[in-house]
């Protein structure tokens, strides 16, 4: 399989982007989802666990997310979005890239994160999903601003130390707008234009008007300052980091 770039021997090596022709086609994802749903027909949906109560019978199946039929639902959204694209739209995304972009922005974002899978092997279909998503991000314009923000979710790492270097294996999602939310947040200074690995995903699709900017996976940062914030009954952190 022909790939475009170097081996990921170091943390900040460029991700392995497939050519458009080498990425999995849209039919692959739709067929895999349909096959999974078909394989579950006739199976009981839930069982009772004495410790955890009612549980889905496929709770430990890494492919259980396919049962939600989100690829087929998102594919309908892809078709509608493509019909409404302006005549001057210059980003040439494949249907697979569109599908994964909407899935990532929608209800499947956690599955694209390597750290979601813990120590278990990441399923091949998820790697195929990542290929399409990261290729789409790489096609977006490079960010040219000065500061980016991430308002952390519970899965995000916040136990950093000043001076620590950290590599995000997944694509770190940020915004160029300071929403001033009362939450843990990263305050990021990216590298200058043409050096940064941050891309303006919102220029391709402005999901919820969030001005979403994504770093390519395996981007490295150094933690420059950590501020503890006290707010009424809660405490949270402002974590300042510079892209390396």
Keywords:
single chain, alpha+beta, three-stranded antiparallel β-sheet, 4 helices, 22% strand, disordered N terminus
Short description, anyone?
By secondary structure, the chain is of the alpha+beta class. The protein is built from four helices and ten strands, in the order H-E-E-H-H-H-E-E-E-E-E-E-E-E.
Any overview of this molecule?
With 244 residues, the chain is an alpha+beta fold. The chain folds into 2 domains: 26-139, no CATH class; 148-243, Toxin ADP-ribosyltransferase, Chain A, domain 1. Helices cover 23% and strands 22% of the residues. The chain has helices at residues 26-39, 70-83, 95-105, 124-139; strands spanning 46-49, 53-56, 148-151, 165-168, 173-175, 185-189, 198-200, 212-215, 219-231, 234-243. The strands form 3 sheets. It has a 5-stranded mixed beta sheet with strand order 3-6-10-9-4, with no helix packed on it. A 3-stranded antiparallel beta sheet has the order 5-8-7, covered by helices on one side. Helix 2 crosses helix 3 and helix 3 (95-105) crosses helix 4. The longest helix has 16 residues, at 124-139. The chain is globular. It starts with 25 loop residues before the first helix and ends with a strand.
Secondary structure layout:
Blueprint: H1 26-39, E1 46-49, E2 53-56, H2 70-83, H3 95-105, H4 124-139, E3 148-151, E4 165-168, E5 173-175, E6 185-189, E7 198-200, E8 212-215, E9 219-231, E10 234-243
SS strand fraction? 15-25%
Number of strands: 10
Q: Please give the radius of gyration in angstroms.
A: 19 Å
DSSP helical segment count: 4
Number of domains: 2
Distance between the termini: 30 Å
Regions with little confidence, pLDDT below 50 for 5+ residues: 1-13
Overall outline: globular
pLDDT averaged residue by residue: 90
The secondary-structure class comes to: alpha+beta
SSE pattern? HEEHHHEEEEEEEE
Helix content: 10-25%
> Order of strands side by side in the largest beta sheet?
3-6-10-9-4
Largest sheet: 5 strands, mixed
